[in-house]
Amino acid sequence: LQKQTLCDPEEWTHAQEPLLHGCCYSPHLYHRYMLKSSRCQILMQPSGNLWNKFKCIKMSNKKMSFSNFINRTFASDSHRAGSPGDDELGNKVIRKFKEYGMDTWTDEHFVKVQELSGANKVTFNGEKVDLYGFLSYSAPGTATGAVLYAHYGRETDFSALRDKNIPMNGRVMLVRAGLNSFAEKVLNASAVLIYADQSDYNSLGSSTEIFGHVHLGSGDPYTPGFPSFNHTQFPPIESSGLPRILAQTITSELAMKILRQLGGPEMPRHWGTIAKLGGETDMITVQVNNLLTEKKITNVFGVIKGFVDADRYVVIGAQRDAWGPGFAKSTVGTSVLLEMARSISEMKNSGFKPRRSIVFASWSAGEYGSVGATEWLEVLKFFTSI
């Protein structure tokens, strides 16, 4: 698979706006995936004449406010990947596709993800705090080390620490969310604590728990390169992008409490804050109790068949799952997907004949690293290579 970034990391960090109830998401980039075979393309929007006709039919419809456009019923229940809420939302999408006159089908996979077992814990200066946010695919266990603040956990941030001759071996890094993915922050540490700073995420409360994943890659990391139909069918291998260290999210409130108590050298001035980086006596213990489990996830599809090259198709997809009830990303994406499906179906009913088939896809397990979309692509790659 070839992957092309559609959004600059820094622009995406400032552009995203978490609108969630009790959760926020890691700042992953949206990507465009293209199978090397010319039979399939997954794009963020249709192109050429189709896009112009789509805009025309939308302009002819009654204008809607953003609040009316978004289907809020999609955010009413928890719909974590593989949960009953996720399945119910998938059924709602199928019913809409059928209402628009499309042929529909589903695609099931059995994938391995981590879920929280009880609560993870952080102990600092004798105070133990239970944590209910977590990072899937973290290494489980317990780690103890001296806290070291590393800004956003980028390579440039670690270079600034090295320039100050600060020892980093065995340290527990405290870093801010944003500017790079959670998985990239975990690459440069022995253990990592990640928080959403209020200056970056002012719409989140200081006690908001954060969720995400730390797999440096996409898809099920326990079947890399293979579709996850059944784990017994393929060799038991793991993705090289799985971290070997502990990673955990903490609230902004807890992060500020830790930062105020740190000693050690001053932070670099260009980091924009006046505080200490942490001394070698500022010990902290991190306990991660994530439990690896297998889930059945379901991708949902609807198709408008092409009139010339029906076996060639454009795929327009959106993530369906979310860590909680939520609103951002999954609800907005699903609403836009269905509105595009409705509008293009109306175009077809009005005489428009697409040359190629148009497939609308509702992906599950996007929060774990585009798992549903990647597994579907791996199915295509696997069977087209036989």
From TrEMBL:
GO molecular function: transferrin receptor activity
Entry membrane topology: Single-pass type II membrane protein
Coiled coil: none
Keyword Membrane among UniProt keywords: yes
Keyword tags: Cell membrane, Endocytosis, Glycoprotein, Lipoprotein, Membrane, Palmitate, Receptor
GO cellular component terms attached to this protein's record: external side of plasma membrane; melanosome
TM spans (from-to): none
Record-linked InterPro entries: PA_dom_sf (IPR046450), Peptidase_M28 (IPR007484), Peptidase_M28B (IPR039373)
Organism of origin: Periophthalmus magnuspinnatus
Biological processes, Gene Ontology terms: intracellular iron ion homeostasis; receptor internalization; transferrin transport
Self-association and partners: Homodimer; disulfide-linked.
Ribosomal protein keyword on record: no
Cell compartment(s), UniProt: Cell membrane; Melanosome
Name this protein carries in UniProt: Transferrin receptor protein 1
Family in the record: Belongs to the peptidase M28 family. M28B subfamily.
Purpose of the protein: Cellular uptake of iron occurs via receptor-mediated endocytosis of ligand-occupied transferrin receptor into specialized endosomes. Endosomal acidification leads to iron release. The apotransferrin-receptor complex is then recycled to the cell surface with a return to neutral pH and the concomitant loss of affinity of apotransferrin for its receptor. Transferrin receptor is necessary for development of erythrocytes and the nervous system. Acts as a lipid sensor that regulates mitochondrial fusion by regulating activation of the JNK pathway.
Pfam families per the UniProt record, alphabetical: Peptidase_M28
Processing and modification events after translation: Stearoylated.
Ranges where the Peptidase M28 domain occurs: 299-377
